[in-house]
């Protein structure tokens, strides 16, 4: 399906829950989620799978499960099984903080998971504990090695670079891509909700990060790396992995955006930063036919904005936060 701006939309991110077992400073309030969704307030696994089947009929081929933290959703493996049965879907991926990943990894792969991304902003236990408000980095590292062992490739690590917090670890992260077949993606710090931790002074642009890495490691353009996101990748000369840069603030990637987003409570969004939503769950409750649901997907795709307005901040009128939309 091609949207109004000529972009092929073939990728859907599904937020399966707004709950999380961490409280990262830039993402979620310390006290947790105000008015968090209960079991009755979210789509069932069967409903999520059904809507994915409808999405496949309008051209969606790739799915990523997100949260919150998707692995806190009970029976997430069953949802992966359901989606893996949809012939048109050729890629099922997961973004996780990694805390619960290792004990579940084998079951997730057997269910049909193809790839996994880990969110990790520091390699130092104390700094990790600080940014996550109490998290333990050990199970995250164990999960990353387990993903490599199981061949859930490419295994990617998403690192939000924050000036004064982890910019002194840029080379440490890059070294992981040299020593191991890991794909490190440096993400510019961006406002993802009405939280006080965000400040423009903490932003380091991708260009600066790349320049710092190139003083240590020569970077070359690699062969294509499997994935559906906006990262620009470089191979570390002589290394096993790659370095990627996601630049939502300094160089918006909207011209190549190929995604829509489904929230846990059944709202469909064409853009992370737009407050415009289509209520699929309400349509389901009213007994909408497949054809009627297809029209709602097409409405979302056709109304997808030409670009985000992230440089203006999240905005209080955008009531949802990143953890409620799925990033």
UniProtKB/TrEMBL annotation:
Domain Radical SAM core, residue spans: 4-228
Keyword Chaperone among UniProt keywords: no
Pathway: Cofactor biosynthesis; molybdopterin biosynthesis
Top EC class, one word: lyase
GO terms assigned for molecular function: 4 iron, 4 sulfur cluster binding; cyclic pyranopterin monophosphate synthase activity; GTP 3',8'-cyclase activity; GTP binding; metal ion binding; S-adenosyl-L-methionine binding
Cofactors demanded by this protein: [4Fe-4S] cluster
Catalytic activities: GTP + AH2 + S-adenosyl-L-methionine = (8S)-3',8-cyclo-7,8-dihydroguanosine 5'-triphosphate + 5'-deoxyadenosine + L-methionine + A + H(+)
Enzyme Commission number(s): 4.1.99.22
Record-listed GTP binding positions: 13, 64, 95, 156, 259-261
Leader sequence residues: none
Binding site for [4Fe-4S] cluster 1: 20, 24, 27
Keyword flag 4Fe-4S: yes
One GO term (biological process): Mo-molybdopterin cofactor biosynthetic process
InterPro entries associated with the record: Aldolase_TIM (IPR013785), Elp3/MiaA/NifB-like_rSAM (IPR006638), MoaA (IPR013483), MoaA-like (IPR040064), MoaA_NifB_PqqE_Fe-S-bd_CS (IPR000385), MoaA_twitch (IPR010505), MoCo_biosynth_MoaA/MoaC (IPR050105), rSAM (IPR007197)
Assembly: Monomer and homodimer.
NCBIfam families in UniProt: moaA, PRK00164.2-1
PANTHER family named in the record: MOLYBDENUM COFACTOR BIOSYNTHESIS PROTEIN 1 (PTHR22960:SF0), MOLYBDOPTERIN COFACTOR SYNTHESIS PROTEIN A (PTHR22960)
Family according to the record: Belongs to the radical SAM superfamily. MoaA family.
Listed name of the protein: GTP 3',8-cyclase
Species name: Thermosyntropha lipolytica DSM 11003
């Amino acid at each position: 399906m091609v949207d109004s701006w000529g972009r092929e939309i073939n990728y859907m991110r599904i937020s399966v829950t707004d709950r999380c077992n961490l409280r990262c400073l830039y993402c979620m309030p310390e006290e947790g989620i105000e008015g968090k969704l209960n079991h009755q307030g979210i789509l069932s696994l069967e409903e999520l799978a059904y809507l994915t089947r409808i999405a496949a009929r309008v051209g969606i081929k790739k799915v990523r499960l997100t949260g919150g933290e998707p692995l806190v959703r009970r029976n997430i493996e069953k949802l992966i099984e359901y989606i893996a049965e949809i012939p048109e879907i050729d890629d099922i991926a997961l973004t996780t903080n990694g805390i619960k990943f290792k004990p579940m990894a084998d079951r997730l792969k057997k269910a049909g998971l193809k790839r996994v991304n880990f969110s990790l902003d520091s390699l130092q236990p104390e700094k990790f504990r600080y940014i996550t408000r109490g998290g333990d980095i050990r199970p995250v590292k164990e999960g990353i090695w387990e993903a490599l062992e199981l061949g859930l490739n490419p295994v990617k690590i998403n690192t939000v670079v924050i000036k004064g917090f982890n910019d002194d670890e840029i080379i440490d992260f890059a070294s992981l891509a040299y020593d191991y077949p890991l794909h490190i993606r440096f993400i510019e710090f961006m406002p993802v909700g009405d939280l006080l931790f965000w400040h423009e002074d903490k932003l380091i642009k991708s260009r600066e990060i790349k320049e710092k890495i190139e003083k240590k490691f020569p970077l070359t353009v690699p062969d294509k790396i499997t994935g559906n996101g906006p990262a620009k990748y470089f191979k570390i000369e002589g290394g096993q992995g790659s370095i990627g840069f996601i630049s939502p603030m300094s160089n918006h990637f909207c011209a190549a955006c190929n995604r829509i987003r489904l929230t846990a409570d059944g709202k469909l969004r064409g853009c992370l930063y737009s407050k415009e939503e289509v209520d699929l769950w309400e349509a389901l409750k009213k007994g909408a036919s497949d054809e009627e649901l297809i029209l709602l997907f097409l409405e979302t795709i056709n109304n997808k904005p030409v670009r985000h307005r992230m440089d203006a901040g999240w905005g209080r009128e955008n009531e949802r936060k990143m953890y409620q939309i799925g990033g």
